[in-house]
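Form 7-S
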Amino acid sequence: MFDHHIICKDGFRNTVENDRVVGFEFQARLPYYRGLGLSMVEDLIITIDGEAVARENIRFSVRGRTWSLDEMETCYDDRWNFGEKATIIVLREGGLSAGPHRLKLGERLRISYLPFVPTTSFETQIELAA
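Output:
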């Protein structure tokens, strides 16, 4: 339904910690009309320039808190709200080069009233500023 809104064009940049580029990040939204508890986000599937990102290299951040995908599985006291932009961090030594990149994000969400776990994905070309 909202699949073409899940990757936000703003916030795409390399992630710098202690003057070292440790990866890249982008902002994303839920493709669902309601918010969800973080434990209901089953998986985030990311591909950058055709290369799949390993689950253990993905971090999810919202409202100043950051979780690995494994930590989110047992996070019952926080939510990802409808319309809220989360920062998705991909740990990748050296980050990405400036210029255009092909980014694909799949969000696998557990919806309480559905008898299956849907995955919504969207792919776009996005520009990393120099």
